[in-house]
UniProtKB/TrEMBL annotation, chain A:
Belongs to the binding-protein-dependent transport system permease family. CysTW subfamily. Coiled coil: none annotated. It is a multi-pass membrane protein. One of its GO terms (cellular component) is plasma membrane. GO terms for biological process: D-methionine transmembrane transport. InterPro entries: AA_ABC_Transporter_Permease, MetI-like, MetI-like_sf. This is D-methionine transport system permease protein. It comes from Pelosinus propionicus DSM 13327. CDD domains: TM_PBP2. It is found in: Cell membrane.
TrEMBL record, chain B:
Residues 2-237 form the ABC transporter domain. It comes from Pelosinus propionicus DSM 13327. Belongs to the ABC transporter superfamily. Keywords: Amino-acid transport, ATP-binding, Cell membrane, Membrane, Nucleotide-binding, Translocase, Transport. GO terms for molecular function: ATP binding; ATP hydrolysis activity. GO terms for biological process: amino acid transport. PROSITE patterns: ABC_TRANSPORTER_1, ABC_TRANSPORTER_2. This is D-methionine transport system ATP-binding protein. Transmembrane segments: none annotated. Pfam families: ABC_tran, NIL.
Amino acid sequence: MSESIYELIHTIVIPEFSKTLYMVSVATVLSAIVGTVLAIVLIITHKEGLKPNNVVYQLLNTVINIIRSFPFIILIVAIIPLTRAIVGTSIGENAAIIPLTIAGAPFVARIIESSLREVDKELIEAVKSFGASNFQIIFKVMLPEAVPSVISGITLAIISILGSTAMAGVVGAGGLGAVAITYGYANFDNTIMYGTVCILIILVQVIQSLGNFLYKALK
Amino acid sequence: MIEISNLQKSFNERKILKNISFTIDDGEICGLVGRSGAGKSTLLRCINGLESYDAGSLKIDGFEVKNHSEKEIRQFRKNIGMIFQSFSLMERKTVYQNVALPMECWGYGKEEIDKRVKELLKIVDIEDKIHEKPRSLSGGQKQRVAIARALTLHPKILLCDEATSALDPKTTQSILLLLKKINETLGIAVVFVTHQMSVVRQICHKVCILENGEIMAKGAVNEVFMDQPQSLRNLLGENEEVILPQDGVTIKISYSGENVNDRLLSDMAQKIGVGFSLVWAKTEKYRDTVLGFVIINVDKNHISLVDKYLNDVGARWEVLTNE
């Protein structure tokens, strides 16, 4: 028994754990990039923004809300054609990164949007008053001022993406979630099931503490 | 020189600015006062194009502020510095970086920036905090940094939006003195939006009183305070209950130290031999002059003598009646 667990850890848990880390990190980076761009567009085109444009704002706002309304598992299935077109397959960790990013980016966009909105309006006026361009206002003032709150938002996003990877495991993405379901739940093996959950709990704790630490250090 | 004529602005059918006209000369300190919602901050923001206006004209050295390309208006704003009630500094940057920001945005070289920032921090007397972040500064110190930042691009005009309203009286004093010094040594015109009349009294040459988007009174500070128009009384909110005597004639005299000697009343008693009783008196300091206000009571049959005497010495006076 103990030998088979040892073997299980070596042949299954560790490789699947690294797959989870891989999916989470790539999806987070992509979500952060796409999300930041979306957030900046939202902030600029908002009616009190630097270049108000209601059509663009409402369009983006609606699209983000629609994507965020999808249950993640349905989203995975719904965008299979897109995933196939990009990755070439709908199975495996690379394929999972597409739905993870599509679900993660709007989430990150909302977080960064609200962080940017918190930047003092008078500060933006002050910066305008000495003739800064809109580009400078966003990249030299708003984003740098919002960094700590963006960091704590991204911490939230990482944990949410980690939760989603477990679900992606169900449709063949691999990772710790898949281990918990196939080797634990389906195999009636509570040790494996709760063991993987424990690993996930520790992972979440580490991410959150790291996020808190960075927030404090940067504030 | 700032020339404003018939400026109008509405927002959602509500008129925020109605027929605003006044001028501010180079090197002058002008106070825009009024209650909150009177339109004074909006008017201030029209001066550097942060707000637009619907009709009328606002010219700065002949440059009409409205209808310019983004690039032109940015270039124009270099001539106008601005400071705010909430100081508006970048919390995550040091004092040095905050003051350097405008020059960085305009692509100045590192050495030039370094020289200018240090020079300005000396002027605002905060050199010792150069590498601190705003969080560790007091309100007055933050405002000094903001003033330094507003001056980096050598503006000709400094706009102040309730710049001392968040400060305690003593700090307010020191900031006002600093602004006065900057005005005198650098010749920068200052437009000061405030609801604190003490600010106007201490540093302004000129004042405009706004009520519901209209200018109710404007002119040199001591003139306006001597005249005491209704709009000024509304703002001062002085309800000092002076109990006026029932008999005789009650007269309020206002005089400024320049044109009337301060022994006005005793001279009157001696020269025209008319006795009076003193009801109320007050003197106030305005920038460089002192204004005096006294209320006296004289017998009805002496009024023509008093009338002649006061007119001869050039005092302003009015007869008060019991309402």
